[in-house]
From TrEMBL:
Superkingdom classification of source: Bacteria
MF GO annotations: catalytic activity; iron-sulfur cluster binding; metal ion binding
Gene3D superfamilies referenced in this protein's UniProt entry, alphabetically: tm_1862 like domain
InterPro entries for this protein: BchE-like (IPR051198), Elp3/MiaA/NifB-like_rSAM (IPR006638), rSAM (IPR007197), rSAM_horseshoe (IPR023404), rSAM_sf (IPR058240)
Name this protein carries in UniProt: Radical SAM core domain-containing protein
Taxonomic source organism: Vibrio coralliirubri
Length: 342
């Protein structure tokens, strides 16, 4: 190993693109969710604290005078570390990078609720002041179906712990995660839980079923019916409509989402979000298909891009070609195109 090598994990949240990445754990301590392949084949491990500290100083030497204000602790769950070890890592980080203002990590409800409120407070005071929570759904049925290994109760408890400790929180929700079978519960109970938690930020993702996953098997067996693009948008409309006590940021930042312009602040932008979805709903069926295809083949970033006649015509030619070959299968084509994006 040369002087400047340090470990990097395979993932980080998109919002941490400019952050210092330090790996405290390897893989996911659960690794059983039916839709997830993030850490496929990787055994979970908590890295020895001395190794992590060595990495911090190696990163310091590697980046020389670069100043970082944010740091993300990889991989799946830093809260599985002994509190004393985590505090040791956080203190070392602050020594090496004194300009850090935010240190963040994924945290599973199970590991956070094993910490006492005093431990959570000490962790936050030592610098880990931002939590990424992969809640995905507030519905017990959907969480069970997806084998998430968490319940709405444990999610609520862990997020209360984090908030009381002073941590900021970003919560991820996956549209379509209940399929057609549980769509109503998914929306209703997710909105209810989000209203209770009131996270600082909500990030929306749209389900794309990865081939080879347990979820894909359910789809093949007819036990899970994926939502179409329009149905996922309807879920989002209902979700936004039902968010009545959320006063945080709401965002569709991932390319897998259809309407990337649904970003802003709740409750101020709620009417604007709903009006944007209404705008899509009021378009002709052909224009809706044109837009969906244009998003999935990377022509459009937002609805307004359809005003570009050249772009519109190019997408329309491709749409006509697909419809000629698969007249009744357009939703299936969109489904497959979305699969290619993950
Ligand atoms: S907890 Fe997160 S990382 Fe782990 S398997 Fe589930 S979705 Fe994947």
């Amino acid at each position: 190993m040369t002087q400047y090598q340090f470990q990097q994990g395979p993932i980080r949240p998109p919002s941490e693109a400019d952050s210092l990445l330090i790996r405290t754990t390897q893989g996911c301590p659960w690794n059983k969710c039916k839709f997830c392949t993030l850490f496929e084949g990787m055994e979970f491990a908590i890295r020895p604290v001395e190794e992590i500290k060595k990495d911090i100083w190696a990163a310091k030497a590697f980046y020389k005078n670069r100043k970082f204000e944010t740091c993300f602790l990889q991989d799946g769950d830093s809260f599985t570390m002994d509190t004393e070890d985590l505090l040791d890592v956080l203190n070392t980080l602050k020594q090496a990078f004194p300009e850090l203002k935010q240190i963040s990590s994924y945290g599973r409800a199970q590991s956070m609720t094993k910490k006492s409120p005093e431990e959570m407070k000490a962790i936050c005071d030592a610098g880990l002041n931002m939590l990424y929570c992969g809640m995905e759904s507030g519905s017990i049925d959907v969480l069970k179906l997806m084998k998430k290994g968490i319940t709405p109760k444990s999610i609520l408890k862990s997020t209360e712990f984090a908030k009381q400790a002073g941590m900021k929180m970003m919560t991820f929700i996956i549209l379509g995660l209940g399929g057609k079978e549980y769509s109503a519960q998914h929306v209703e109970e997710t909105a209810a839980l989000l209203n209770q938690i009131n996270p600082d930020e909500i990030r929306i993702l749209s389900l794309a079923v990865k081939p080879g996953t347990e979820l894909d098997e359910l789809v093949q067996n007819g036990e899970f019916t994926p939502l179409s693009e329009r149905e996922m948008l309807e879920e989002q409309y209902q979700l936004i409509s039902k968010l009545n006590s959320v006063t945080g940021n709401y965002g569709n930042y991932q390319g897998i989402n259809l309407l990337m312009e649904l970003n802003g602040q709740l409750p101020e932008d709620k009417a604007k979000f709903l009006a944007t979805i209404d705008r899509f709903n009021m378009m002709s069926e052909n224009d809706q298909n044109n837009f969906i295809l244009g998003r999935r083949i990377h022509y459009y970033a937002a609805l307004k891009d359809m005003d570009n006649q050249l772009m519109y015509d190019s997408v329309q030619r491709e749409l006509n070609r697909i419809q000629k070959q698969n007249a009744d299968e357009l939703d299936n084509v969109f489904y497959q195109l979305r699969q290619r994006m993950i």
